[in-house]
Amino acid sequence: MTASGNKLIDAVTTLVGWINYSATDPFERTRVSAEIVRLSVPLDTTDSFSLLFSHPGAAAAVTAVLEVAPLLKDGTTGTWLTAATVAIPAAGGQIEATISGGSLVPAAGDLANVVDPCFFFARATLTPSTPAGAHVSLTHA
Question: Is this model's pTM higher than 0.85 or not?
């Protein structure tokens, strides 16, 4: 087997929505809007990854903002950067946005405090509210 030049992020990393019990995640739970998720593989090592967003319907259009942040040398979270913003009409639906991992650059104030690759944190914020059945995740593009 040859080594891949492109590491994969987890098969699907749920940022908002229900997570089923699995061999790699033994806790069944629901992640909420704006919850910070620590990734096992940094996003800036992937050529590209996808933001997947869906909801079955809501009172108004729903916007999802994906933010990512670097892991600083002291183990804390660096400055949050917007990686993508997508919206789905009130009727519901799904959307996919592809993001280049190589285009992620830490904020100027964080540059001296990171070791590349560094983008280990992600969060998705849904506005104006999170409709029942909404799901936001990241996956390899």
Answer: yes
